[in-house]
Amino acid sequence: MPRKLAAIALLLAFLLMVGGCAKGTTQTGAGAPGDYPTKPVSLVIAFTAGGSSDVQARIVEKYWKKQFNQPIAFEYKVGAGGQVGFTEIARARPDGYTIGGINAPHFILQSLSPQATFKKDDFIHIAQVVNDPQMLIVNKASRVDDLDGFITEAKKREGKLTVGIVGTFTGHHMALLKMQDVLGITVTPVPFQGSADQNVALLGGHVDAIIGNLNDMMRSLDKLRPLAIAAEKRHDMVKEAPTFKELGYPFVSDIRRGFSVPAGTDPAIVKKLRDGFRNICKDPEYLKDMERIGQPAEYLSGEEFAAYCDQYDDDAKKLIEQYGLNRGS
């Protein structure tokens, strides 16, 4: 009997030891938070390749390699003004191996729509990297030379003048609605999947104007004419573009770009990503590259970007009610 008990005790000890080793192997295989990342990281982009979000993310990719020992792989999940991609990010496994480019106020507005597929709090924000003022832009071949000319043309065409925007329930959509109110005009909105498609349509003469980002303007500077910029003051990148405010119209609007992970991601991984992105955004060479491609860099920490999103969420609820956008089925 003593021998049998000793044998059982030995067997139990062996099993416990094997179990402990297996557990340790599993943790190492998955990558403990301190070792993150131990495999390539997927980066979801919610807009078309070649658009503002993609171009900016490619600059981040270049400097990512200085901060992390694994590559990032781009995945384009396009549609519904970014909603398809934002949904993909929100629903991804919260293990740090899917991060996403996030656009505010797009994702905030979409989280409040009747067709919402995610909530605002389904994301943990890593950083804001861009604050891109919006502009009213026409083709250089257009007979419209300035904002007054645009207003005159819009009134003459009685709502038939077409203005391209990126998606619906997006910052571009909201900017167009606000601009119509401020200018006292009505136009026909034409939604596109992304800014690259929007630019192509304007250059091809398929729309009369676009509400676009400063970066959209910068990428085709020689072929486009800015009528006004929705910023507090003129921007150094396009000093010739007057602000709506200096022309007598109180209209300010911008698009923020950042990076986020799904809610539930380990805080240690979130911290590592936030630290890495902060270092990227402070790198002088990164800032030079951003200026070179016409991306208006503005870094906010993950916590600061989250606070901005919370504030906009409160404002967006009022705007959605004002414009009747919550009446969809």
UniProtKB/TrEMBL annotation:
Signal sequence region: 1-22
Record's keyword annotation contains Signal: yes
Gene3D superfamilies assigned to the protein according to its UniProt record, in alphabetical order: Bordetella uptake gene, domain 1, Periplasmic binding protein-like II
Lineage of the organism: Bacteria, Bacillati, Bacillota, Clostridia, Eubacteriales
CDD domains: PBP2_Bug_TTT (cd07012)
Full protein name: Tripartite tricarboxylate transporter substrate binding protein
InterPro entries assigned: BUG (IPR005064), Bug_dom1 (IPR042100)
Recorded family membership: Belongs to the UPF0065 (bug) family.
Keywords from the UniProt entry: Signal
